[in-house]
Amino acid sequence: MTIRKTKSGSYHVEVFFPKNVRQILSNGDTRFRKTVKTKAEAERLERATLDKISNVVETGTDRAMSTRGDMLFKDFYQEVWWDIYVNGGSSRVHILPSKATVAATKSIFRLHLLPLFGKYTLNELNNDPEIVRKELMILSETYANIKTVKSYVHQMFAVAEAAGYLELNHIDRVLNLIGSPKKNRLRVQRQAAGEALTADELLAWLDAAKDDLAHEKITEQDYLLFVLTLNLGDRKSETYALQWKHVDLQNGYLYLLAALGKDKTLGPTKGRKQTKVQLPDFLCKMLKSWKKHQVNNLAVQGITDVTPEQFVFTYTDFKGHMNQPLHPDFLNYRLNSIAKRHPNLAPLHPHKLRHTFSTLAAEGGASITTISAALTHSDTSTTQIYVNAPATVGLAANDAFAKKMALARANSEKRDSQLF
């Protein structure tokens, strides 16, 4: 039987290729293997594969598949894959990509994938996976986000196989051979520089920001943005997306429901999570003060119709447009301005605030589960990346070990005394 049910409840299809069809249908592989979710899909794959074997045995070729696979990588991307992608059908998780993600995907294809593979046909790349491996290996030396590039290559060829342009996707095997050398080097550099501030380094930053606020080098909004992003441990895009309707000052809660994209439109948070955060008293006081002052500031600008949809943090852009959602690098610019006035401060950028929050929380005694919930992670293994502190081992394990040894010693002495 060529179909078997796995322990996870999926179905594994395995069909052996006769020797005389292997080069035509499988690039020399001895069998067709694939795991799918349903038995019906498994049976469909089994029938389709057996039919193709019969066709090749009778005619000596699989001409229909070969002809469709002669489409250029560039044309397949534009004419087939793109519509499937924007409708959320190209990956295993069928979720519509956000506008920001769509724009980023276009850039990756325009800057990297189309220049590398656009001139090749699907068959040329699929029959010679070394082309893909070598090109992506070279790219991985200079481009840190190689994992995303590999993901799109995988999606392209998975769709090509599912849509009948290729008999069998041979690209996935070589994608697993491509590492992330650039990303690894950057990680080592960050670790050497420190991915989180120490408590003393953070105190120096807070004192410097408060001094700048007192001397009107930064605004009340700038200071609140810095302190709030730090204490929430969130992503800056989530702080940027806050509207007053998300802030319950009466009960001391704040809701992280959205993220502000680079195009200044609201989209889902990473992981599409919605989080209710209890605020410490000092943050409630700061937010109450800012809400009152923001209304006054907007009134001076002629904006008097302030609704719950009002963003907590806004700015006037270089064209003079007032009360605009923040520029993606707004917090970066403010941190850089503080650093220039206080050159002895440790290096800091917005995402380092997130690492700092999680690390100092761990050093203060918070469990990894508690920190994971605060960072809105789905898995504590992801949180562990942010906690840049050594694990602390207390005496509990040693006490249990000593207790066991003491009991063994007492029993041994008791046995010896009974012998005499």
Number of strands: 10
Percent of residues in helices comes to 55-70%
Chain-averaged pLDDT: 87
- How big a fraction of the residues is strand? 5-15%
How does the helix and strand content classify structurally? mainly alpha
What Rg do the Cα atoms give? 29 Å
Instruction: Extract low-pLDDT stretches.
Output: none
Strand order of the largest sheet: 1-2-3
If helices are DSSP runs of H or I spanning 4 or more residues, what is the number of helices? 19
**Largest sheet, if any?**
3 strands, antiparallel
Q: Indicate the overall shape.
A: globular
Indicate the multimeric state.
Answer: single chain
Strand-and-helix sequence, N→C?
A: EEHEHHHHHHHHHHHHEEEEEHEEHHHHH
Brief sketch in words of this structure:
With 420 residues, the protein is mainly alpha-helical. It contains 19 helices and 10 strands.
Question: Can you describe what's shown?
Answer:
This protein has helices at residues 22-25, 39-59, 63-68, 73-86, 99-117, 122-127, 130-140, 146-162, 171-175, 181-193, 199-214, 220-232, 236-240, 281-300, 330-341, 350-363, 368-374, 380-386, 396-419; strands at 3-5, 11-16, 31-36, 247-248, 253-256, 259-260, 266-267, 275-278, 314-315, 324-325. The chain is mostly helical and 420 residues long. A 3-stranded antiparallel β-sheet has the order 1-2-3, with helices on one face. Strands 4-5-8 form a 3-stranded antiparallel β-sheet, with no helix packed on it. Strands 6-7 form a two-stranded antiparallel ribbon. Strand 4 (247-248) and strand 5 (253-256) form a beta hairpin. Helix 12 (220-232) packs antiparallel against helix 14 (281-300), helix 12 packs across helix 16 (350-363) and helix 17 crosses helix 18. The protein is globular and about 85 Å long. The N and C termini lie far apart (71 Å). The model has no long low-confidence stretch (mean pLDDT 87).
